[in-house]
Amino acid sequence: SDILAAFDQAVDDGVDVISLSVGASYAPPYDSDSIAIGAFAAARKGIVVSCSAGNSGPGAYTATNIAPWILTMGASTVDRDFPADVVLGDGSVHAGVSLYGGDGRPEGELLPLVYSAYCGSRYCYSGYLDPAKVKGKIVLCDRCGNARVEKGASVKLAGGIGMIMANTDLEGNELLADAHLIPATMVGATEGDKIRAYIESAASPTATIQFRGTVIGEGTSPAPKVASFSSRGPNRVTPEILKPDVIAPGVNILAGWTGAAAPSDLEIDPRRVTFNIISGNNLTIFTSSVKKFAIG
């Protein structure tokens, strides 16, 4: 009812475009989908309605907001990156990304490296890591299971001083920059496999993380490219109508951020910022004909 009321209010306000980044976990039939119903009423008034396809990719039939009268948006990468590369004790370099800018960065110093699967929790669940095996070390954690930044908090709680988060095969090699609580970086599945192999083979594995700030155009091609998390078609309700319709920037996007929440969005994070880098289904419209724009 709130969504329908918001559509009605936007129509009454005389907007030209409604952008809605809300959706169900699956695509319901149009006549029982409040967003599709509200968008249909707006479209009859000549209003363009664009909605996010969702963040449930890369599986098929995961796109939502797929009614024919909705402009369904997928998420894409951009040519901006935040490199934070892993350098192992054998000299090999493995590309990663991070937004961490705090104290305690290794700055080239090689530190002991361990794999979290041998320390109590492959996914670095809070309270499950053994401090005796983690303290004073950089910890390789596998992605999934809990929030990405939460893994670093778990490592910190156990006495670790750095984290490398590795994608599993499900996420592949796409990288998302996070405002980690400790010196940390994310690497792709391929690089993660190489780091695990090094840990297995080295008598005393070591690593450091090289934080390189913001980079434009370097190592980010091709861009734009569909984000791995962006929901895919085909259209579950009307297969003959292709969805999503278009993609727009949605990976590592610079955006204004509320002071009511931490950049990691975790309650244990005391930091507050006015801007943040976030990822998801986004939409940017540049046109001189739009007089009013409603965002939901």
Structure described in brief:
The chain is of the alpha/beta class. 17% of the residues lie in helices and 23% in strands. The longest helix has 13 residues, at 189-201.
Q: Which percent range describes the beta-strand content?
A: 15-25%
For the biggest β-sheet, the strand order reads: 6-5-12-8-9-10-11-7
Helicity level, as a percent range?
10-25%
Basic shape:
elongated
Number of strands: 17
Main sheet overview: 8 strands, mixed
Round the Cα radius of gyration to an integer and report it: 22 Å
**With helices defined by DSSP (H or I, 4 residues minimum), what is the helix count?**
5
Order of helices and strands: HEHEEEEEEEHEHEEHEEEEEE
- The chain-level mean pLDDT equals 89
**Ranges with pLDDT <50 over ≥5 residues?**
285-290
| First-residue to last-residue Cα separation | 14 Å
Briefly note the structural class of the backbone.
alpha/beta
Describe the fold and architecture.
With 296 residues, this protein is an alpha/beta fold. It is built from 5 helices and 17 strands. Strands 6-5-12-8-9-10-11-7 form an 8-stranded mixed β-sheet, with helices on both faces. Strands 14-3-2-1-17 form a 5-stranded parallel β-sheet. A two-stranded antiparallel sheet has the order 4-13. β1, α2 (34-44) and β2 form a beta-alpha-beta unit. α1 packs parallel to α2. The protein is elongated and about 70 Å long.
